[in-house]
Amino acid sequence: MLTADFAIPVFAEIQEKGDHGELIALDLDNPASITAAVKGIEARHGSLDVLVNNAAIMLDGGWVSNTTITIDAATLKRTFETNFFGTVALTQALWPLLVKSGHANVVNVSSRMGSNTYHADPSGPLVGVKPFAYDASKAALNALTTHLAELGQPLGIQVNSAYPGWVRTELGTEYAELSVEEGVNTIVDLAMLPPNSRSGKFEHAGSEVPW
Q1: Which of 97, 115, 142, 206 has the fewest CB atoms within 10 Å, measured from its CB?
Q2: What CATH number is associated with residue 54?
Q3: Against a cut of 0.85, is the pTM above it?
Q4: Annotated catalytic, 138?
Q5: Does residue 175 lie in a domain region?
Q6: Residue 20 resides in a domain
Q7: Of 172, 160, 167, which is closest to residue 182 (Cα–Cα)?
Q8: If we measure between CA atoms, which residue out of 60, 56, 89, 84 comes closest to residue 74?
Q9: CA-to-CA distance for 185 and 176, rounded, in angstroms?
Q10: Residue tagged active-site, from 118, 134, 163, 201
């Protein structure tokens, strides 16, 4: 899901370069919007080769905190509606078009914040960094990856989770290590995997990230 202030300039840049692109309105929190988007893709193209699930919100407040006990139910639900439930609904709706492709890649844009291995390490990189709603939603997204990978295997659909790294976006803040151009590399690599490559993986820059 791209916000209009981001998607429209990107779309304009694609057109200026002479490349082909289409802009489709999509709100993951609105089932009718998902249905309309899927029908539009099917009508124009008949199938889908790549699905990148990139929508995410972070409503916990701050990264350097532990909101496990303080997070309210409404914020937890709102986070999951976008970061997980909306993504599941979109993927389910697009699944028939991915099957028709014959070979398709699904990339779930996750985060190391969704790694239970990192969070359980008392000397690991996420000590004191426990925004529960966001982290739990990304852990759930990783579960979608492993479960969907098994379902897609006999259908030629590869499903992987991508950790882009700490990227300088509105969500990542200006203190992040990587530019957007650098952060997108892992996503593009997984989106462009040739058939019979790998599936059910959690990766960053070609290396596996612990679940």
Answers
A1: 206
A2: 3.40.50.720
A3: yes
A4: yes
A5: yes
A6: no
A7: 167
A8: 60
A9: 16
A10: 134
